[in-house]
Amino acid sequence: MSKIIVPLPKKDKIDFYLENNVDGFTIGIKEYSENFNNYVDINELEYYIDLLNSKNKDIYIVLNKLYFNDQISKLKDLLFKISKLKISGVFFDDLSIVNINEDNSLKINLIWYGIHKATNSKTINFLAKRNISGVLLSNELTIDEIIKILDNINIKAYITLFGYLNQSTSSRSLLTNYFKFIKKEKEENKYYIKEKNSDDYYPIVEEDNTNFFSSKILNGIKEYSKIISNKNLQAIYLDDYMISPQVFYNVIEAFCALKNSPNDKDFINKLYDVIDSNNYCNTYDGFFNNKTIFKVKENE
Amino acid sequence: MNKVELLAPAGNLERLKWAIMYGADAVYIGGKNFSLRANAINFTIDEIKEGVEFAHKNNAKVYVTVNMIFHEDDLDDILDYLKTLSKIKVDAIIVSDLFIIDLIKENNIDLDIHISTQASILNKEVVKFYKKEGVKRVVLARECKKEDIKKIIDETNMPVEVFIHGAMCVSYSGKCMLSNYFTNRDSNRGGCAQICRWTFDLYDKYKNKINNNVDFSFAPKDLSLLRYINDLIDMGVESFKIEGRMKSIYYIATIISVYRRVIDRYYEDRKNYKYDKNDEIELYRCANRETIDQYFNSFPGVNEQYYNDREENTNQDFLGIVLGYDKDNKEIIIEQRNFFKKGDIINIFGPKKESFNIEVSYIKNEQGEKVDAARHPREILRIPCNKSVDKNDLLRVNFLG
Question: Which of A179, A290, B13, B167 sits 20 to 30 Å CA-CA off A262?
Answer without folding.
Answer: A290
